[in-house]
Design goal:
Number of helices: 8
Largest sheet: 8 strands, mixed
Helix content: 25-40%
Shape: globular
Order of helices and strands: HEHEEHEHEHHEEEHEEEEEH
Strand content: 25-35%
Oligomer: single chain
Radius of gyration: 18 Å
Length: about 325
């Protein structure tokens, strides 16, 4: 039944393509076998519950016979929203001859809107989604398996970012297949993991300085640690830009004054046996912890920042994929 749901939702994903049709030569839909597990089980290397996800592969209208690909991981809002990054970025990338493979991490798991039920899925589980999507798309004859990158947004941005860790690749990835680069947009970076500085490929982090849901500071600090360890990690900050600054859907700020926010001030760390602990209390995070706050801007489109981010990603991928 999960496979049926996944493939049905894959067909619905086509609804977000209308603005990109001029750049898209053809589309294909795939089932992606993945797993669902808790954060603790993920960190312990345990097996999860099988889940059949859906992926939409969109080829560029012009480009080489074997196209480079960017795997896209949606935000916690889900994949199917007109005017969301899942519509904008395929258009931008297809225009430069790069195919996109958009992963739906929700429908195959029976999820619609993650924020309404945050206990359902960890962004760590979505790292497995990324690895499995890589394995699926690399088998497509029209794809260059040596030029596949991953890009994610918010919760998906965290999955794209930490999928660069060698430890996680060894636990859940394929030893013969890796992403050649990792791009995160306004990612969740407030957890420090063991061996997090052992990454293998270049990282690009995009973040707005006004983001009050997932602030830039933890991502900036992580990138600094990576750089000190001799890794390739760059942060590009967009002045006065909020969360989901690249989503034209949100031309009016999406503000929630009363919603709890543990991402702004709480700092977490990996403990023993896969536990995620508040760095201040050394205990699992609790709503009563002093770092919890209320209110955040969930999304607010900033045209200047969005356009600049398009150019920044183009430059990164042009070098990464050796494009002319």
């Amino acid at each position: 039944m999960n496979l049926v749901i996944a493939l049905a939702v894959a067909l619905l994903l086509a609804m977000i393509c209308e603005k990109a049709e001029a750049q898209v030569a053809r589309e294909a839909f795939y089932s992606i076998p993945s797993e669902t597990m808790s954060a603790a089980d993920f960190l312990m290397g345990k097996k999860g519950t099988p889940a059949a996800l859906a992926g939409q592969l969109r080829f560029a209208k012009t480009g080489p016979a074997k196209q480079p690909v960017v795997v896209l991981l949606h935000s916690a809002s889900g994949p199917i929203t007109e005017g969301a990054p899942y519509e904008e970025w395929p258009r931008v990338l297809n225009e430069m001859g790069i195919a996109t493979f958009a992963v739906d991490s929700y429908a195959g798991r029976g999820l619609v809107n993650y924020p309404a039920d945050p206990g359902k899925i960890s962004f760590l589980t979505r790292i497995i989604d990324a690895y499995r999507a890589l394995e699926v798309v690399a088998k497509e004859p029209r794809v260059d398996p040596s030029r596949i990158a991953v890009m994610g947004f918010s919760q998906g941005g965290a999955a794209a970012l930490y999928s660069a860790m060698a430890r996680f690749q060894k636990m859940y990835g394929s030893p013969d297949l890796q992403f050649v680069g990792h791009i995160s947009a306004y990612a969740i970076c407030n957890t420090r993991f063991r061996d997090e500085e052992d990454v293998t490929k270049p990282i690009l982090v995009l973040h707005g300085t006004a983001d009050d849901l997932t602030p830039v500071a933890p991502c900036r600090e992580y990138a600094e640690r990576l750089s000190k360890a001799g890794k390739s990690a760059r942060v590009i900050e967009y002045p006065d830009a909020y969360h989901q600054f690249d989503a034209p859907l949100y031309r009016t700020a999406l503000r929630n004054e009363q919603a709890p926010n543990s991402l702004r001030r709480c700092r977490l760390e990996e403990g023993e046996n896969g536990a995620i602990l508040n760095t201040e209390t050394k205990q699992p995070l609790s709503p009563s912890d002093s770092c919890y706050e209320k209110g955040f801007t969930g999304a607010y489109y900033q045209e200047a920042a969005a356009n600049k981010s398009h150019e920044d990603v183009k430059a990164f991928l042009k070098e990464l994929f050796h494009l002319q």
